[in-house]
Amino acid sequence: MERGQKRKKWLKSSGFLRYYDNVESLLLNEELDCIDIITDVDTHPIFVKMAAESGVNVICQKPMAASFALAQEMTKVCRKQGVKFFIHENFRWQAPIRALKKAIHSGVIGEPFKARVSFCSGFPVFDNQPFLAELEQFILTDIGSHVLDVCRFLFGEADNLRCMTGRVNPTIKGEDVA
């Protein structure tokens, strides 16, 4: 049995009343409050535009888009259509990050004047997201958005932002160090 057939069988056995294998049918046949786009990054602009033009509020998983120009287009279409547009960032909701924010805002450590926020993981990201190896800007797109969001969450908006990048892994297209 092929993967698509297995998925349909599982959906039916799990009690789902309706399911769709294309966005057009979903948007045409359902009255939605919002849609959460969790597909590969290359499809995000397409699905955001489709949802916005259907008047559906959008949550889009990061990475938002493969380029800044595409991200601007996505924002523009949502603004033009008058729909809410959210980029899902989940690190800020992790217990250690929330505990740190609580400690900072309680004043127990005083007012921060300098901070270093970094992320390092041995997780085999390319095993379940092989498309990331093809991104021109891998680390900034995949992890940089999390680090920036955590900093915004903890300390507020940045006045300026700078970054140096490099590539250690020769088998991927984009940078992997920032």
Could you provide a short overview of the structure?
This protein is mainly alpha-helical and 178 residues long. The protein has helices at residues 3-13, 23-29, 44-53, 68-81, 95-106, 125-128, 138-155; strands spanning 34-37, 57-61, 85-88.
Describe this structure in words.
There is one protein chain. The protein is mostly helical. 43% of the residues lie in helices and 7% in strands. The protein has a three-stranded parallel beta sheet. Strand 1, helix 3 and strand 2 (57-61) form a beta-alpha-beta unit. Helix 3 packs parallel to helix 4 (68-81) and helix 5 (95-106) runs parallel beside helix 7 (138-155). The radius of gyration is 19 Å and the shape is globular.
Characteristic key phrases:
mainly alpha; 178 residues; single chain; 3 strands; three-stranded parallel β-sheet
